[in-house]
Design goal:
The structure is a single chain. The chain has about 425 residues and is α/β, with parallel strands linked by helices. It folds into 2 domains: about 290 residues, Zn peptidases (Aminopeptidase, 3-Layer(aba) Sandwich), CATH 3.40.630.10; about 130 residues, Alpha-Beta Plaits (2-Layer Sandwich). The protein contains 10 helices and 16 strands. The radius of gyration is 24 Å and the shape is elongated.
Amino acid sequence: MKPYRMPELFSQLTKAIEDARDDIVALTVDLVRFPTINPPGEAYTPCAQYVGRRLSSSGFDVTYMRGEDTPGDNDKYPRTNVIARREGKYPGPTVHFNSHIDVVIAGEGWSVDPFEGVIRDGKIIGRGTCDMKGGLATSIIAVESYIRANPDFPGAIEISGTVDEESGGFGGVAYLAEKGLFSKPRVDHVIIPEPLNKDRICLGHRGVWWAQIQTKGKIAHGSMPFLGDCAVRHMGAVLNTFENDLYPKLDQKRTQMPVVPEGAKRSTMNINSIHGGESDDYDGLPSPNVPDICNLTIDRRFLIEEDITQVKAEVVDLLEDLKSSRENFDYTIEDIMEVLPLMTDRDSPVPNAVADGIRQVFGKDPQYIISPGTYDQKHIARIGHLHDCIAYGPGILDLAHQPDEFIIIDDMIQSAKVMAFALHQLLTRGT
């Protein structure tokens, strides 16, 4: 078969993707209607099977892999991942599009049913439209359109729908990476269609350290608190120290990484949760006790210029100072998760190919950015040792996890063109 010249192929791809407008909308709506809420991990299996059936009908070999013995996995909420692969006519590299199928809770403040997939004013509204079922649908349309236009492509194409990204990705990409599914020689290039805006390339993310701090006290009757020792008051001292000593120092730290939005170019720490005393998961009144335990979870985001050892020491040193200066103060601190900052070289094949696609579609150079929060690229790099990976996809980052989350249909069509163009560049590199 006579090889396509790129302008001819791009013209065919453009038409094929534009003709698939109704299909990309219907596919996104169908995906949104699976309420894949994490936690606990609802509807993972039927959603993965839906994606698998779709890709099987497009000639892909489909495999389902359960993230067994990973956090949250059980028979009621199995961590079901789908991986589809289609071999090309000739040997060549493998390009993988990875999207997570889980979404966060809907929350309050919606003007529509969050799991209906409402189409309005050129948008699809629903939980997960932006983050990131719209990106999954876009990658599927891009790949299917490319295969129709160029059925004799070299190499191989993979698409996966994975779970648990919103809670760390351990039952999804991390599990698959440990099984060798995100490593050479199986996979060479990875694009993750996270919603970072259609003309931007995300090279990586800031680092993260999650930890739980527990202050200790002594239980006593609430009418005689002087006979006990209030763990909540001790935690109040921790919070006060953070406010006066730690947060001002974090505000002074700045990075040269192109992190967005602007506020994320400095170090940050969020108090993710705090709980002291008796459990509040009942309707009655609490008993009058002095709380002897208080737990606080911190979410510390740090910069590529910072060392993880020093990041932890900043917190521990403050706790040790309190232990020596505050009467009866005692604590424990336990690591929950840590991920180092990550930034792919912008001159690597995937960033170059996607940049060419953006220039072709939008007529301008891309903006290179770093995500304020982590995503599954961390596992591909850390476990799979595969570093030619970026995030690129439709969707406005600020809409993720918001009520009335939406994705613009035109953005999906344009991003599909970028993906298809980049796919061709990566499959035919060096030929």
